[in-house]
Structures are given as C-alpha cells and as structure tokens.
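step: validate -> pass
step: tokenize input -> pass
step: predict -> running
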Amino acid sequence: MQFFEVKIRYTSVDSNSGKEVIKRETYLVWAVSFTDAETIITKEAEQFVKGEMQVLTIKRSNIAKIIGDEDAERYYKAKLIIISIADSGHKITTSEYILVKTDNIGDVKECIQSYMKDVITEWEVNNISESPIIDVFLPDEYFETIKNK
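step: predict -> pass
step: emit ->
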C-alpha cells in the first residue's frame, strides 16, 4: 500500500453568500492502487459532497509518513535530508518527505524533532511548505501500526 494524492472537483453552496461555487480540493489516500484510491475518495466524499463529484487526478505521492497532532487543522510538507556514511567514507544523502499535521508552521520542526529523536544517523530539515492537502483518508490499521512503533 502507498499514498496517493487525489484531486476532486465538486459543487458546494457558499455559507456566506448562498451561491453555488465549484471547489477543487486535494486529498491524501492510503490505497493499494489507483482504482482503490478512486473508490476510497468516492466513498469518503459522499459524506460531504451534495451532488456531483469528479475525480480530476490521481498520482502516487512521495509522502513517506504522516506525523503531528490529529486535532490540528493544517498539513505541512517537510523534506528531510538523511545523511549516512558509506563504508568508503563518503557521505550519502537521501530525501524523505513527511506530512506534518499542526496548526502553524512554527510547530513543524518541533514535531519532526520529536519524531526523529531516536534516529542515530545525521539528518536535517531541507524545506517546509504548506500542503494543499485538505484531509487524509487512512484505514484504522494504519493508526494502529503507527502507535505500535
């Protein structure tokens, strides 16, 4: 299983003006395949979309992990650079993208430091940006796996 970024379009009624507006939103879905991701987003969207909904795009995501506060409102994407030393003595760098759920960008590094506290290798945060992802749809087993690690 892996993460997929799914963009959808649907019509909604603006709570202030009462007019219909077209919304385009991005969601992160934990799925087996593109077809599975479409099935999951369609089922989940039925809960908040009144009327027609269209899946615009589905693509594999480079997100490796989701961390942070479940009750927070925003998602930030952080790029970590993990530095290790090869047997030859050369530095090897690899990138990992983490989605951090927190209420403000200032808490992102703190969340990452807490998540990476037991990592022995050297690492650094290369980039942090606000993510367009509105919500994440994960099976219950995913949360259990994270809690047991």
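step: describe -> The helical segments are 34-45, 108-115, 140-147.
step: cleanup -> pass
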